[in-house]
Amino acid sequence: WESFLPSQVLVQPVQLICLYAPAYHLILEGILILWIIRLLFSKTYKLQERSDLTPKEKEELIEEWQPEPLVPPVPKDHPALNYNVVSGPPTHIITVNGKECINFASFNFLGLLDNEKVKSAAQASLKKYGVGTCGPRGFYGTFDVHLELEERLAKFMRTEEAIIYSYGFATIASAIPAYSKRGDIVFVDEAACFAIQKGLQASRSNIKLFKHNDMADLERLLKEQETEDQKNPRKARVTRRFIVVEGLYMNTGDVCPLPELIKLKYKYKVRIFLEESLSFGVLGEHGRGITEHFGINIDDIDLISANMENSLASIGGFCCGRSFIIDHQRLSGQGYCFSASLPPLLAAAAIEALNIMEDNPDIFQTLRAKCERIHELLQGISGLKVVGESFSPALHLQLEESCGSRENDVKLLKRVVDYCMNSGIALTQARYLEKEEKCLPPPRTRTGQICIELDCCLGFLFPQIIRMSVLHYSDFTLDIQVLPLMALKPDWVTGLFQYGTNAVRGRMLNFGTGE
Amino acid sequence: SLIQQAGCLCVYLFFKNGISNGTLYKKTFIEHFEQAPMYVAVLTFLGFGVGTIFGYLRDFMRAWGLEKRNVATEREQQKDFVPLYQDFENFYTRNLYMRIRDNWNRPICSVPGPQFDLMERVTDDYNWTFRFTGRTIKNVINMGSYNYLGFAETDVNALKTVTIELQKYGTGICSTRQEMGTLDKHVELEKLVAKFLGVEDAMVFGMGFATNSMNIPALVGKGCLILSDELNHTSLVLGARLSGATIRIFKHNNMQSLEKLLRDAIIYGQPRSHRAWRKIIILVEGIYSMEGSIVRLPEIVSLKKKYKAYLYLDEAHSIGAVGATGRGVVEYFGMSPDDVDVLMGTFTKSFGAAGGYIAGKKDLVDFLRTHSHSAVYATSMCPPVAEQIIRAMKCLMGQDGTTQGKVRQLGKNTRYFRRRLHEMGFIIYGNDDSPVVPLLLYMPGKIGAFARRMLEKNIGVVVVGFPATPITESRARFCVSAAHTREMLDTVSTADVLLKLTSDAKEVGRSCVSVTLNLNNSFLHLFF
């Protein structure tokens, strides 16, 4: 039993080590042991003295601190400071800064803004409900007209459910963060509009930008994500992923390649959110937007969002899709839950506008024809190029070559716009917050209202004036011929005079006599 | 003795910061945040506990097919996608909210004036879906809408100008402020708002919520500090978050908390880099819509002056509702509008319209005209809505020749109604002059029961619980309007639900009736 004595248990291995280990080993170990002992007993290392501020020093710091001004001063000649003021309704003929113009600047695509039927529906609603709703949807701010509008929109779009917001911008900006949370992944086109960008920012999700309309680039990102997922399958199982695209891009005027996107959706199991503010009420045989344009089953799109401020000429926005998806926003859409609901008269106006769209499906063809015509007529202006699809009702005119800096480009385009305005054509410069935009589009002039009610000869006149405006400024190479009045076909001229507004007539004469 | 002590505990009024400051305040400033006894909190948690256990039980039954699943489901083709919702995320909605869902989103079919008509709806599947019966519940007393001054009306004479403008302009704008969406109507309105508030300039926006969320990011950014009241509205929180600035939260209306944050921020600078903050902005509301409290503006202004911070005041609920002539909390405290750097407010409430404004120095407004997200990217305000604001504002300013008794009437109604409820022994929160009157219910079971009983008596109230309030502080909220008659307010305060609560309280000998347990066993009503 002696072998179990503790002394033997301890001593034996030491003896063994001493016998078999080489001498240098023992010396080294000895030094190390001594080193450890020294470390243990040496004075502890002291951090540098903490310098707590004395109350006096604190007061001095507070006294010293000078904040920046709340806002930097805005130069008086800032291009965006002095707004164009429109007197009277912003319809086809508008008075901008006291001058009568033909309106090519607002998004009143279907000309419903001054439609008498829409107005009388709104009047009836005003009589019954007054103006405001005085509450959010949850707290007695849900009116029967809201429910009716939601039902009508769902029916029009052929989806299960629709939900309305009281502001167009807030629609997609609230819808995205309702689903996509921190840690989720959103693949988004770099040309996406500002409302989408804000929605993404609010969602705090992981954002992956792909090149505008570049499906190869999107697929590359999706593949990258797929390999990432294989590394961490547990995380991948709870990471929601979305593609956010626009039907007709506000910033570029072209459409998204939806059929390819759908293929990618099923291949990589990503949901698609589609922003249709420009394409709703514009594209497709019945104005249902990009899905109808491409003949795609609307259920393949997880969520469609659009505003009612363009084609419907009202205020607000809506989302539509399957109830499984849409209903979630009724408790999670911030702009829905925490904002006063849409004034009933605006909902009534939107319902009437939908009625008109349903009763006259040919207006979409008319609109398309006009867009294509204008697009064609605007080709070949030297110095300016037209960007976007031919059927887009918002045309972008862009400088062919930049004149050095963005600032100069903007100035030059402003002169073009001013010239057009003086000639009685209201255009607008597309405005961007340059510091805020993720991928800033180049400076552009935008025409919104290629409206169906504008006479086609005006459509002819319009490119002429843009041509003239280019001619007016020698910054461009001048190789355009301004058509003399004689070259106008007689029916165009009579058409113009028949249009009946003095403004147009006066301008017509100028064409003949003046430049 | 013990019993006496218990009684004292119950009637103990907890005045949070309830001192009047003679130098800063021109009149006494008292707000009640009476605390309920401990057992109420215990029972409330117990209530949520029971609800949660039943929720799990029913989830279990649904999973095994013992209970019908009513919830909408994923598309068959997308079953293998990552689930859009996590099951636990919707637990509360599915198992607790769903039971009392009928008390929200009640559709109305008339003007939201002092009384409204509700569309009667019933459910055949325990609130999963609703069916309209086609009948309307007429003349329900409206204690829910923010119609403080009674401008939600359909009187033909009052709406004459709105009708004319609607006929002239139509409803749409189809453009943004910076492009082609600035109408003469907007210019007129902005001038009037600036004049009404007594400031240099003002800008109006199409949506109140967006006024906050789209303008705060223009004012502050990275390297700036936002000090935000813990009970600020979502729109302020969202705006702060979108700005990219650092956000720190101070306790509700607590000046010590705010001052400490201000001092520390200036002394220590930004975290990690220790650079000085570029600027510090304090975000507060005039009247807090869930607490009924009024911001301690004089103290905040003196703090912000002392520490060179800026003040952003959201007067969503207070503009029109307080102050001798309805000019908001600035007037209420007898201060100058120059004391506040950014005056923000909405037109949804007192003005019975929609949209919001930001007012202040010309520099500020000019900057917003050029940099506001809303001015660049969002559609401008609808002209007839603008006209409604103009007519309401002119009425408040006495410009339209009508007697301007609305603000005074609102003040009278508010104090009367608050006094009645207080006398009956309810715990009500907030300032005596605030038209938002929250009545504390505490138990989750009472939320649904209270609102349903009130509706049976033709009274529409708003009830709120977690997550809109702290978990133990479920409440009913009354919004007093100038358009309410004394009879209506009496009808509400003598509704049998309230009386029952009072008599229950008397039976058990307590003076804080809000905390009594019994509402015809509504506690059980919720969970079984």
Automatic annotation (TrEMBL), chain A:
<feature type="transmembrane region" description="Helical">
    <location>
        <begin position="162"/>
        <end position="180"/>
    </location>
</feature>
<dbReference type="GO" id="GO:0030170">
    <property type="term" value="F:pyridoxal phosphate binding"/>
</dbReference>
<comment type="similarity">
    <text>Belongs to the class-II pyridoxal-phosphate-dependent aminotransferase family.</text>
</comment>
<protein>
    <recommendedName>
        <fullName>Serine palmitoyltransferase 1</fullName>
        <ecNumber>2.3.1.50</ecNumber>
    </recommendedName>
</protein>
<dbReference type="GO" id="GO:0005783">
    <property type="term" value="C:endoplasmic reticulum"/>
</dbReference>
<dbReference type="Pfam" id="PF00155">
    <property type="entry name" value="Aminotran_1_2"/>
</dbReference>
<dbReference type="InterPro" id="IPR015424">
    <property type="entry name" value="PyrdxlP-dep_Trfase"/>
</dbReference>
<dbReference type="GO" id="GO:0004758">
    <property type="term" value="F:serine C-palmitoyltransferase activity"/>
</dbReference>
<dbReference type="InterPro" id="IPR004839">
    <property type="entry name" value="Aminotransferase_I/II_large"/>
</dbReference>
<keyword id="KW-0012">Acyltransferase</keyword>
<comment type="function">
    <text>Component of the serine palmitoyltransferase multisubunit enzyme (SPT) that catalyzes the initial and rate-limiting step in sphingolipid biosynthesis by condensing L-serine and activated acyl-CoA (most commonly palmitoyl-CoA) to form long-chain bases. The SPT complex is also composed of SPTLC2 or SPTLC3 and SPTSSA or SPTSSB. Within this complex, the heterodimer with SPTLC2 or SPTLC3 forms the catalytic core. The composition of the serine palmitoyltransferase (SPT) complex determines the substrate preference.</text>
</comment>
<dbReference type="InterPro" id="IPR050087">
    <property type="entry name" value="AON_synthase_class-II"/>
</dbReference>
<dbReference type="InterPro" id="IPR015421">
    <property type="entry name" value="PyrdxlP-dep_Trfase_major"/>
</dbReference>
<comment type="pathway">
    <text>Lipid metabolism; sphingolipid metabolism.</text>
</comment>
<keyword id="KW-0663">Pyridoxal phosphate</keyword>
<keyword id="KW-1133">Transmembrane helix</keyword>
<dbReference type="GO" id="GO:0046513">
    <property type="term" value="P:ceramide biosynthetic process"/>
</dbReference>
<dbReference type="InterPro" id="IPR015422">
    <property type="entry name" value="PyrdxlP-dep_Trfase_small"/>
</dbReference>
<comment type="pathway">
    <text>Sphingolipid metabolism.</text>
</comment>
<dbReference type="GO" id="GO:0046512">
    <property type="term" value="P:sphingosine biosynthetic process"/>
</dbReference>
<keyword id="KW-0472">Membrane</keyword>
<keyword id="KW-0443">Lipid metabolism</keyword>
Automatic annotation (TrEMBL), chain B:
<feature type="transmembrane region" description="Helical">
    <location>
        <begin position="36"/>
        <end position="57"/>
    </location>
</feature>
<dbReference type="GO" id="GO:0030170">
    <property type="term" value="F:pyridoxal phosphate binding"/>
</dbReference>
<dbReference type="InterPro" id="IPR004839">
    <property type="entry name" value="Aminotransferase_I/II_large"/>
</dbReference>
<dbReference type="Pfam" id="PF00155">
    <property type="entry name" value="Aminotran_1_2"/>
</dbReference>
<comment type="pathway">
    <text>Lipid metabolism; sphingolipid metabolism.</text>
</comment>
<keyword id="KW-0443">Lipid metabolism</keyword>
<dbReference type="InterPro" id="IPR015421">
    <property type="entry name" value="PyrdxlP-dep_Trfase_major"/>
</dbReference>
<dbReference type="InterPro" id="IPR001917">
    <property type="entry name" value="Aminotrans_II_pyridoxalP_BS"/>
</dbReference>
<comment type="pathway">
    <text>Sphingolipid metabolism.</text>
</comment>
<keyword id="KW-0812">Transmembrane</keyword>
<dbReference type="GO" id="GO:0046512">
    <property type="term" value="P:sphingosine biosynthetic process"/>
</dbReference>
<protein>
    <recommendedName>
        <fullName>serine C-palmitoyltransferase</fullName>
        <ecNumber>2.3.1.50</ecNumber>
    </recommendedName>
</protein>
<dbReference type="InterPro" id="IPR015424">
    <property type="entry name" value="PyrdxlP-dep_Trfase"/>
</dbReference>
<keyword id="KW-0808">Transferase</keyword>
<dbReference type="GO" id="GO:0005789">
    <property type="term" value="C:endoplasmic reticulum membrane"/>
</dbReference>
<dbReference type="GO" id="GO:0004758">
    <property type="term" value="F:serine C-palmitoyltransferase activity"/>
</dbReference>
<dbReference type="InterPro" id="IPR050087">
    <property type="entry name" value="AON_synthase_class-II"/>
</dbReference>
<keyword id="KW-0256">Endoplasmic reticulum</keyword>
<keyword id="KW-0472">Membrane</keyword>
<comment type="similarity">
    <text>Belongs to the class-II pyridoxal-phosphate-dependent aminotransferase family.</text>
</comment>
<feature type="domain" description="Aminotransferase class I/classII large">
    <location>
        <begin position="138"/>
        <end position="492"/>
    </location>
</feature>
<keyword id="KW-0012">Acyltransferase</keyword>
